[in-house]
C-alpha cells in the first residue's frame, strides 16, 4: 500500500483537485491510500472565525464564513460535472455553513474560544476538501471510498494538539477496511483530524496532515509514503526565501527531522517518528511539477562531512537565569522543569550548568508570570525577537572546516547564542531578526553556491 498525502495548495481549487486525481491514477496499481488537507487558507479562515467570534467581531466572522463557503461552492461548480452530485455536495456545504454559524454564535455568547471549540471548527476544512476530491475521483473513474478519519483516528483529548493511539487506530482501520465491498478501492480520508473515544472532534496540531500520513503508513505497514506539496522536495534553504536554493535528492531520517524541527516547513517534524520507527521510505514530491523526482528520505546516511541545508526560525526568545544561591544541579533542574510544565512551555534549546541555565523558546510572547517565576530563583535576562539559523548534516562535526565556514559567514553579525544539537546533527546561531536574512544568504552562499 502507498500513502499519498496532498497539502493545501495541492487541492486549492478545482483544477488542482483534478491534477491530484491524475497523479493518483498514475499510481493506481500501487493501492494508494489518499490523505487530503484542507484547501489552502481554509484552516486559517476557520481559526479566524473562532478568534473573531470570541472577540465579538461578528462581521469578520460572517465574512470568513462566506469566503470559506464560496471557495468550496466554486470548486463544486467548476470541478464536478454531474448536476446531482453538485446538488448533493452543495447541500453538505450548506449544512457546514449552518454548523459554522451555530458554533460561532456559541463562542460569541461565551466570548471564549476553548481548544475544543477551535477543533470543532477546524475539522470542517479537511471534511469538505476530502469530500470534493472523493467525488472528483469517482467522476474520473477512480474507485474512491471516502473514510471519516473521526471513525478511526482515535486520539487523546488534548484538543488542538491531540495524540493518536496507534494500536487502536490500527484495530479500527483494519476493521473498516475489511468491511469495504468495492473492488480495488482507493481510500480517501482527511489529514489533521481525529476524535476522542467519545467521538468529540480533535486536531493534531497545525500542519499535521503530514503526520496523519505517517501514522497511516505505520499502522498499515505501507511500502512508501509520498508527501505531495508545492515545491519539488527539501531544498538547501526555503526556496521562497533563497531563490538559489537547490533540491536535496536524498536525506536520512535524522537530517529530515532536524531540518523540519528547525524550520523547514515542507514537512511537519512529528511525521518522522512513526516513519523512522518502521523504516518506511518517504518521498517528498511536487504536485505542480510531478516529473521531478523529489527528495527521498530513508535510513541510509549521506557520508559527506558537509551540511545538507540551512534553516531559519524567527520570533525566538532567550531566557537566561543565574540563581541567587548555589543549588545542587538536580534540585535546580527540577524546579525549572516544574515552572516549564506549569506554563506549558517546551524549550527549543537549553543549556545547563551549576551556575546558569539558558532556554531558547519559539513563537509568542514570553508571559510576565513565567518570567516572574524565574525571578524568584535568580536574576533573569530576556531577549526577544531574535532568529535562529541552523545548518544541518549527519556528519558536520567530522570536518572542522564546517564550523569555521559557518562562523565566517556570520563574521559581521551580532551573535546572541550558539548551540550544537545533542545528537550532533546541527549547529545553530541566534542573531537579530534584522540580520537574519542577510546571514542566511551568506551561509547559503558559503555552503551551497561554491
Ligand atoms: P503543504 O500545504 O503542502 O503542507 P507547506 O506550505 O506546509 O505545504 O510546505 C511547503 C512550503 O515549505 C514551501 O512552499 C516552502 O516555502 C516551505 N519551505 C521551508 N523550508 C523549506 C525547505 N528547506 N525546502 C523546501 N521547502 C521549504
Ligand atoms: N489544514 C491543516 C493546517 O492548515 C493541516 C495541514 O494542512 O497539514 O494546519
Ligand atoms: Mg504542510
How does this structure look, described?
The protein has 450 residues and is of the alpha/beta class. The protein has two domains: 229 residues, 3-Layer(aba) Sandwich (Carbamate kinase), CATH 3.40.1160.10; 140 residues, 2-Layer Sandwich (VC0802-like), CATH 3.30.2130. It has 13 helices and 16 strands. The strands form three sheets. Strands 3-4-2-1-7-9-10-8 form an eight-stranded mixed beta sheet, with helices on both faces. Strands 12-13-11-14-16-15 form a six-stranded antiparallel beta sheet. A hairpin with a 4-residue loop joins strand 12 and strand 13. 45% of the residues are buried.
List the helices and strands and how they pair.
Blueprint: E1 2-6, H1 14-26, E2 32-36, H2 42-55, H3 58-79, H4 83-110, H5 115-139, E3 144-146, H6 166-178, E4 186-190, E5 193-195, E6 201-203, H7 209-219, E7 224-229, E8 250-252, H8 253-261, H9 272-277, E9 282-286, E10 295-298, E11 309-323, H10 329-342, E12 349-352, E13 357-362, H11 368-375, E14 378-392, H12 400-409, E15 415-420, E16 426-432, H13 433-448
Helix pairs in contact: 1-3, 1-5, 2-3, 2-4, 2-5, 3-4, 3-5, 4-5
Adenosine-5'-diphosphate binds next to loops.
Amino acid at each position: 500500500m502507498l500513502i499519498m498525502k496532498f497539502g493545501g495548495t495541492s487541492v486549492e481549487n478545482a483544477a488542482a483537485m483534478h491534477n491530484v486525481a491524475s497523479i493518483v491514477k498514475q499510481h493506481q496499481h500501487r493501492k494508494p491510500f489518499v490523505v487530503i488537507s484542507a484547501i489552502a487558507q481554509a484552516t486559517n479562515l476557520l481559526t479566524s472565525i473562532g478568534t473573531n467570534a470570541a472577540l465579538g467581531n461578528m462581521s469578520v466572522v460572517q465574512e470568513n464564513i462566506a469566503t470559506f463557503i464560496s471557495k468550496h461552492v466554486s470548486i463544486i461548480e467548476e470541478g464536478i460535472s454531474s448536476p446531482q452530485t453538485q446538488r448533493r455536495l452543495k447541500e453538505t456545504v450548506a449544512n457546514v455553513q449552518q454548523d459554522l454559524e451555530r458554533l460561532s454564535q456559541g463562542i460569541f455568547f461565551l466570548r471564549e474560544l476553548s481548544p475544543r471549540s477551535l477543533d470543532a471548527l477546524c475539522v470542517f476544512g479537511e471534511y469538505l476538501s476530502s469530500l470534493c476530491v472523493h467525488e472528483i475521483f469517482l467522476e474520473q473513474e477512480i474507485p474512491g471510498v471516502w473514510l471519516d478519519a473521526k471513525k478511526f483516528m482515535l486520539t487523546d483529548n488534548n484538543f488542538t494538539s491531540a495524540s493518536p493511539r496507534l494500536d487502536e487506530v490500527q484495530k479500527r482501520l483494519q476493521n473498516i477496511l475489511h468491511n469495504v465491498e468495492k473492488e480495488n478501492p482507493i481510500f480517501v480520508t482527511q489529514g489533521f483530524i481525529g476524535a476522542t473515544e467519545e467521538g468529540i472532534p480533535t486536531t493534531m496540531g497545525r500542519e499535521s496532515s503530514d503526520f496523519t500520513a505517517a501514522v497511516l503508513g505505520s499502522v498499515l505497514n505501507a511500502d512508501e509514503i509520498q508527501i505531495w506539496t508545492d515545491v519539488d522536495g527539501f531544498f538547501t534553504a526555503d526556496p521562497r526565501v533563497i531563490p538559489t536554493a537547490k533540491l536535496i535528492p536524498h536525506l536520512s531520517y535524522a537530517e529530515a527531522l532536524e531540518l523540519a524541527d528547525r524550520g523547514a516547513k515542507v514537512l511537519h517534524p512529528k511525521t518522522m517518528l512513526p516513519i523512522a520507527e518502521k523504516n518506511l521510505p518517504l518521498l517528498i514530491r511536487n504536485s505542480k511539477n510531478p516529473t521531478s523526482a523529489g527528495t527521498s528520505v530513508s535510513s541510509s546516511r549521506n557520508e559527506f562531512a558537509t551540511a545538507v541545508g540551512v534553516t531559519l526560525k524567527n520570533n525566538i526568545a532567550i531566557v537566561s537565569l543565574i540563581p541567587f544561591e548555589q543549588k545542587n544541579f538536580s534540585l535546580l533542574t527540577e524546579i525549572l522543569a516544574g515552572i516549564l510544565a506549569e506554563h506549558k512551555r517546551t524549550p527549543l534549546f537549553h543549556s545547563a550548568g551549576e551556575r546558569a541555565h539558558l532556554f531558547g523558546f519559539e513563537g509568542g510572547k514570553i508571559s510576565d508570570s513565567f518570567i516572574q517565576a524565574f525571578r524568584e530563583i535568580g536574576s533573569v535576562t530576556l531577549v526577544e525577537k531574535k532568529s535562529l539559523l541552523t545548518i544541518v548534516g549527519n556528519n558536520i562535526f567530522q570536518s572542522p572546516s564546517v564550523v569555521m565556514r559557518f562562523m565566517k559567514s556570520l563574521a559581521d553579525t551580532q551573535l546572541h547564542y550558539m548551540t550544537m544539537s545533542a545528537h550532533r546533527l546541527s549547529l545553530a546561531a541566534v542573531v537579530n531578526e534584522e540580520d537574519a536574512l542577510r546571514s542566511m544568504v551568506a551561509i547559503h552562499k558559503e555552503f551551497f553556491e561554491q
